[in-house]
UniProtKB/TrEMBL annotation:
Keyword presence, Transmembrane: yes
Entry's family note: Belongs to the short-chain dehydrogenases/reductases (SDR) family.
Superkingdom as given in the UniProt entry: Eukaryota
Pfam family, one: adh_short
Protein name listed in UniProt: Retinol dehydrogenase 13
Amino acid sequence: MQKCAEVIRDFVKNHATGLIVFVAGAGVLALRRWLAGGVCRSKVSLDGKTVLITGANTGIGKETALDMAKRGARVILACRDITRARIAADEIRQQSGNGNVVVKKLDLSSLQSVRDLAKDVQENEERLDILINNAGIMMCPKWKTEDGFEMQFGVNHLGHFLLTNCLLDLLKKSAPSRVVIVSSLAHEKGSIHFDDINLDKDYRREESYRQSKLANVLFCRELAARLEGTGVTVYSLHPGVIRTELGRHLFSTFALWQRIIIMPFFMLIKNPREGAQTTIYCAVDESLANSSGLYYRHVFDSPTFSLKLTSL
């Protein structure tokens, strides 16, 4: 026994560097897997269903659209940049084998654009089974929408608020149907500044973002209450921290040395496919059919999909 212990000590001593690298590497891989969260396991088919996703030309919106297309749905990519949206639609058609992927113009910073899209959908779509309010902007400078609202509040909440309400009749007609609202964990530190909704007195990027995300969650709760008994259910969610274009305005504010330090951490956070899983879960999972008005986010305790539900 003593000889065995000596052999082990000698081995560790002679291979200390290699063992440290191995353990560190295994730890990083384990952390990366944990941060990735779970995967939506639902196999539900969406044949004959129509799904509209805002901001679906990139990031988790695009990955969500790809998943919906693979399930057989007619998928509408509602996007501001039509050129990029058409490229994304072509890629989704090729990867999913589903040719029923269409692009429609939507600029959430323009309420007229929102109304135009809603009118288009009402006149040309026979049904709408799932509406996914995915598009958003984060930590941008003090910009205003076409209608004079602060940009983050206008795009993240007001545009989607109007779009959802304009499409409610079609959603009710298509019931059972769902509205999925992509919010953020940032809402927990948010406040609604009713006396200064555009934050003209003291604009702070992070406070504006938090306010808009809190508005998303509150909208989900109130809409669910108002739609009780109609067959339309509503869900809000935090998708996690993800490598997407959403953080471009925040990243641009960092000094060069800060960017260099942060870059390695980007390899640990979710990719868009992983980040889309909570949205997909809320959109299709059968177990949620009788739930409405709750907020969903990942719990990293299992390789299968699990969620923490929160009631305000």
